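Escalated from tier 1: 2-acetamido-2-deoxy-beta-D-glucopyranose holo job.
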Amino acid sequence: MWHFRLWDVQDVAVFLSIALYMCHLAGAISIRSPQRSLTRSVQEDVDFSVDITCSGTPTIQWTFMSGLVSRSIGSWKPGVYTNITADYSSRVQAHGNGSMGLSDLRLQDAGFYVVTVTEETGNSKDFGFVLKVNEVLYEDLQYLVVTALALAFLVGLLMLSMWLLDKGYRKFLAWRQRKQMPENDATELQHLDGTAP
Ligand SMILES: *[C@@H]1O[C@H](CO)[C@@H](O)[C@H](O)[C@H]1NC(C)=O
Ligand SMILES: *[C@@H]1O[C@H](CO)[C@@H](O)[C@H](O)[C@H]1NC(C)=O
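Tier 2 regenerated the structure:
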């Protein structure tokens, strides 16, 4: 009875030490980030910033997930190679510290971004981000309406001042005509007088 118990304790101890060893292995990689939930607008840029602690040079793999879709964005080993999927190659910046920049955001970019850090021993760890992408339609519309109103006001002001100028000019012309009329009549009369005989 006691004998068996002793073995049990030994088994448990072995188990515990293996578990601790595994925990130690799993704990060897640490991934931290100041912000895991990000919100951006269409056409803006986003930085998925991670602070990775691990042994050796890790392999970084970023994956995009939205609904049932799971797409590889790319993977890189700092200083060794960088392999970005063709769809993302123009928009992704692969940083040596494992962080990833994604520029010119689209609505379809909204979803989950998972970074998988793999050590040379094969030990790996995941870390996820949530990205929300907002449309800028509303702000654009507001901006457009304000611009249109300002333009309409300017056009109105311009038309009013042109009308006033035109009216003033006509008045001036009429006034000048009235002033010149008697002189004209006089010269015409003189002219007529001179040629008549
Ligand atoms: C990672 O590197 C990028 C570019 O060098 C930098 O902007 C970012 O702040 C870094 N992130 C961390 C967590 O150090
Ligand atoms: C780059 O990644 C793609 C898919 O993730 C893979 O098929 C391809 O072999 C990789 N290329 C290199 C040079 O590692």
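The pocket of 2-acetamido-2-deoxy-beta-D-glucopyranose (ligand 2) is lined by residues 72, 83 (CB under 6 Å).
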